[in-house]
Amino acid sequence: MKDGCEVKICGITNIEDALSAAREGADYLGVVVEVSYSPRSLTVEGAREIFSRTPLPAVALVYQMSPERIKYLVNSLHPHALQFLNLAPETITWCKKEFTELECWQSLHLPPAGEGLDRENVLAQIKAGCEAGADVIVLDTAAVVGGTQRYGGTGRTSDWQLVRELGVACTVPLFLAGGINPANVQAAIKVVNPEGIDLCSGVEAQPGKKSPDKIRALMQAVRETIREATSERNG
């Protein structure tokens, strides 16, 4: 694996969970902003306390948000990054010109493990995101949950071996998302070898509320995996 693996705790809905993620050593937090299908979505106004008080770089996740609303979000929340849940290369290019200090992350969605995948289409999406100026590509899982199609936050894993193969085409840091939890995070890192992991439901006590114990267990597992890999490289 690489020298380290960053961790983003996503779906944060309150400042207490944001501070808990920071205490346990997470690298980023994510807040879903005005995404109608997400049970963890906050309005721009509702997210303001988290963005203003968190000690971590905060990422705002958006879906098909208009440029005017993006401007309002960025000027109101001052996020470290925008993460686009829909493929939005033109919007990424625009954002990089409009907000020169803002990172843009692109989520791309794979089917759950065991379901069919259009490999060439995914590779084309990775290429489009990278060429548009994305700073990070997040390979996540899309699935129908409770009768609703959801892009991320599904609790479902994709085919990690395939993610590793697809990641070769990625020219920017690759984050793995989708169904990661304290019990499987070590396997996820060892199989995919990503620059980071991005998870939400895997460290929740209930939808929208994180479990400090699960966050702690996750971070301990990540650190142990990194120590093992470092020890193996050093002989």
From TrEMBL:
Report the residue ranges that make up the N-(5'phosphoribosyl) anthranilate isomerase (PRAI) domain in this protein.
7-220
Instruction: Give the EC number(s) under which this enzyme is classified.
Output: 5.3.1.24
Name its species: Desulfoscipio gibsoniae DSM 7213
Q: What is this protein called?
A: N-(5'-phosphoribosyl)anthranilate isomerase
Q: Which SUPFAM superfamilies does the record associate with it?
A: Ribulose-phoshate binding barrel (SSF51366)
Quick one: which pathway?
Answer: Amino-acid biosynthesis; L-tryptophan biosynthesis; L-tryptophan from chorismate: step 3/5
Tell me the gene name: trpF
Organism taxonomic ancestry: Bacteria, Bacillati, Bacillota, Clostridia, Eubacteriales
Q: Which HAMAP family match?
A: PRAI
Q: Which family does it belong to?
A: Belongs to the TrpF family.
Give the catalysed reaction(s), semicolon-separated: N-(5-phospho-beta-D-ribosyl)anthranilate = 1-(2-carboxyphenylamino)-1-deoxy-D-ribulose 5-phosphate
Q: Name one GO biological process term.
A: L-tryptophan biosynthetic process
